[in-house]
DNA sequence: AATGAATGAGCTTTCATTCAT
DNA sequence: GATGAATGAAAGCTCATTCAT
């Protein structure tokens, strides 16, 4: 019989299950995605329990799926590697903003799942949030301390939280809540954001508001 | 027989049902809060269907609960009334920040519900998000245009989204995702935020970063 | 407050309950007519249990309603009183047919209920069927024996069952199953029926088929 | 574990469900036959929802069951094929009567269900009644027109309705209402019925009543 | 007499999971 | 590895009935 599902039957079943499950978890929530529906999306017979040949429970699929997302996020943990050293603060900030937004977009599915399931599965969140959020905020705070003379650690953390938070919220609103068009386009947002962060640095250079 | 529920039995049952339901929806999500559990929390016999003497469906409880929250939010729609005219931009911003954070805290429950149920009940969100988010962002953008000479409307919307977004994300992280302590305390955050916003205004006055 | 229900509020509540209940039982069946719906139809607050001030249970309403219908049927028990003695067999049969059809129409509601609930409440049927059906059939058989010389009792019972049965089925089909227009109009049916019954009598006129 | 249900566990579950469901629908009505009870009768664990692996709803079981009954009735649609051509009117009528009674007995279960559910599910009845009743009546009327010279179509329909109706009502009373023994035995009934129908035909032999 | 509120039992349906094949 | 069938538990909801007011 032919596999009529959307899933590519060349990838191993286990992978297809995780992929489709995570997609469904993002779309309709963990509770809303029944095992039968996941099976159907993965090209298995719905309700046949085929999922249990690959995972011991529905929850395990979620855990494996989240872990897989997180593995791809390890690079983000040290945002400084991304920023690099361009010798120009504004250029470095621009790269940072674009990269952070791109990452949030790439992880939109994960974000949706984390947000939906945060309350019912708090233990799942610890590692995820740490990799996705906390460490990024810390890392950016470190960069701030190094870049801006005289910025103390606490102030840097506050600035980091406000700065990255403003980008995060734009993506949470758009990708999670579905609220659109609160700001014009990404490039304007990045420009304004760079201005904003520069304005918070106790810089010695003359600042320009555009 | 004694009423063993946590709810205050002096308030009418209908109110207790909405209160407890909204609390549970925020804690464990709409699907996670079974009618039986809501009834128990409201001091009714769980599973007896007592909820249906006051509401025609579980969904109606959610709708009524959300509407009740929204009714209290009407004042927030025009944030400018709150800002008032203190004659001092920094002071006005400080008030704005504190008020916005306080509102987000007061509506933490609503936020949690909106975020959890956004995908399964998009129609419910339209009004809510508009009152809670969009109109506030717009209103603040208006204030920016009026306050800062030479700030064009698009730029003002971008600044508004970034500025309020940074406050919003701090509350989403704390009240919805449960991520704590990314920034020290509220007062430092407000201070830094005021600096930040001032830094984005094409001001004529000399600005001071503290 | 005004009573908006269809029921005439001048008749005593108890009567209104029986009336509306029987109407609903006929329309949607015993199980389909909830106590709340009966109350609403009777001008009481639905779900308030007002019915129980007049009846000890929903079933009692049915019993009382059926009994009330049956009381009106006592006259039918001796169909011979209706037929009377017109001195003309054909005329007497015509009256019989018209009367029987009219009675079945008048008791359409009762018929519907009896048919719907016959299996779940067999004890209720005994008296009803006896009054409505059996005794009528017997009574007509008696008339046949008296009217037609040489008709033995068994044959008379068979003829009665066939003759009245054909009228009964036309009403069951129309009033209970809702099947319409299997025969043109009532008067043609009556005519044909009189012919039919006359043809079955061992009349003094030459009859052909035995 | 042993299968304790009454149903033969060698027939497929789906068949057993339909069989037992139709039996129960006939006995206690559609509403009276709970899914759990049907499951138990079909040898499944009551309340486990096993029925839903074979049907999407309780209603679907009814529809499938009725359709199955109807499929067996297609032959009856043209009663003339059954009557055939025996060259003898009385003989042909005898066959007709016996066949019609036998069919009504075979479909007693279906009759009970149709009668009980006629009001709540009128759409279900259309096809059923047409196959079981209307077409049979029409078909017999056709035969009457062909057999009896000078019988016009309207009169034939009336006679058909009266004649078959008298047989139908005997079975409705016995198989649906449970009223017994209004007529002695089937053979006497058939004899009398043949007499009756012959008496209504404008035969070439001298007939008296028109 | 009437009502608002409550309740226990039952309803149809969903679903995660198991297991023999 | 995959499937069809089965199951226990729980879901949202309905309803006949009771009772204090």
Can you tell me about this structure?
The structure is a homotetramer of 210-residue chains. Chain A is mostly helical. Chain A has 2 domains: 52 residues, Arc Repressor Mutant, subunit A (Orthogonal Bundle); 129 residues, Tetracycline Repressor, domain 2, CATH 1.10.357. The first copy, chain A, is 69% helix and 0% strand. The first copy, chain A, contains 10 helices and no strands. In chain A, helix 7 crosses helix 9. Chain A is elongated and about 65 Å long. The relative contact order of chain A is 0.10. The N terminus and C terminus of chain A are likely disordered. Chain B binds a DNA duplex (21 and 21 nucleotides) through loops.
Short description:
The structure is a homotetramer of 210-residue chains. Chain A has helices spanning 13-32, 35-41, 58-71, 74-77, 79-83, 89-106, 108-117, 122-147, 153-177, 186-200.
């Amino acid at each position: 019989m032919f596999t009529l599902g959307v899933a590519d039957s060349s990838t191993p079943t286990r992978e297809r299950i995780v992929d489709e499950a995570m997609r469904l978890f993002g779309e309709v929530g963990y509770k809303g995605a029944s095992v039968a529906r996941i099976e159907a999306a993965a090209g298995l017979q719905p309700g046949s329990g085929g999922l249990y040949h690959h995972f011991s429970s529905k929850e395990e699929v979620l855990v494996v799926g989240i872990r897989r997302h997180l593995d791809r996020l390890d690079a983000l943990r040290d945002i400084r590697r991304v920023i690099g050293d361009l010798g120009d603060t504004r250029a470095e900030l621009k790269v940072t903003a674009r990269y952070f937004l791109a990452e949030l977009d790439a992880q939109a599915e994960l974000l949706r799942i984390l947000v939906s399931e945060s309350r019912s599965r708090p233990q799942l969140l610890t590692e995820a949030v740490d990799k996705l959020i906390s460490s990024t905020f810390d890392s950016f705070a470190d960069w701030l301390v190094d870049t801006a003379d005289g910025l103390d650690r606490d102030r840097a953390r506050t600035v980091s939280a406000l700065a990255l938070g403003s980008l995060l919220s734009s993506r949470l609103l758009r990708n999670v809540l579905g609220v659109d068009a609160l700001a014009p386009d990404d490039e304007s947002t990045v420009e304004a954001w760079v201005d904003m962060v520069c304005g918070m640095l106790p810089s010695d250079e003359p600042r320009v508001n555009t």
